[in-house]
Amino acid sequence: MARKPRFNLTDYPQYIMQRGHNRLPCFFDQQDYEMFLESLEKAATQYQCEIHAYALLKTEAHIIVTPRVQGGVSQMMQSLGRRYVQYMNHRYHRSGTLWEGRYKSSLIDSSAYMITCTRYIESLPVDMGLSDSEATYPWSSYQTHAGGQSNPVLKPHEMYNELGEDEGQRCEVYRELFGFELDPGIKKHIVETLNLEMVLGGDRFKHQIQLMVDRPVRPKKRGRPPKEAKR
Known about the structure:
- One of its GO terms (molecular function) is DNA binding.
- It is a single chain.
- By secondary structure, the chain is α+β, with helices and mostly antiparallel strands.
- It has one domain: Transposase IS200-like (Alpha-Beta Plaits, 2-Layer Sandwich), CATH 3.30.70.1290.
- It contains eight helices and five strands; from the N terminus they run E-H-E-E-H-E-H-H-H-H-H-E-H.
- A five-stranded mixed beta sheet has the order 2-3-1-4-5, sandwiched between helices.
- Strand 2 and strand 3 (60-67) form a beta hairpin.
- Helix 1 packs antiparallel against helix 2 (72-92).
- The radius of gyration is 19 Å and the shape is globular.
- The model has no long low-confidence stretch (mean pLDDT 92).
């Protein structure tokens, strides 16, 4: 099956997911997580990408990023992958692939889904049983968005900045959002859209993107094609 071309658009955020090969761990201790974040920061700076949110789990990494130059995300991920794989191979005396194929990516309609996707990503450590609360998990962007913790990797998205007039107000509003669980249907939609590498947004946004790219932006409708009319 031919690979889908990437959504190679500047100034549009993307949800990225990179999973370990055969769903095996790609992080083993604090040093690994720190090395990944350091590599992510360097790659994002080099290729002019802005990181808005992330969660590093035992077997996968989830990132929301906006490229400011053409091809920025692909170059960033290639650089990040090379740097981190070299580190892992050297540290653990291993060889071969670390990742399960190429990363998944989905274009995001920021006005409709940016905060929702950020919440979804930062909830994953709790949903996957890695932490009792988002606030105590050290390897996500939650502590910055909800607590104002300084983080050189992150540049909060404008949709987050609109939550309040100052940092304290934004953090308070964001924390309050976590008092309400995300709808399971929305979570399922995010997962399915990411796995299919389609556009996460409303019909108008999808139509806008469809005019800009030469690839599908939504899943094909299931079922048999309509029968031809009899002559």
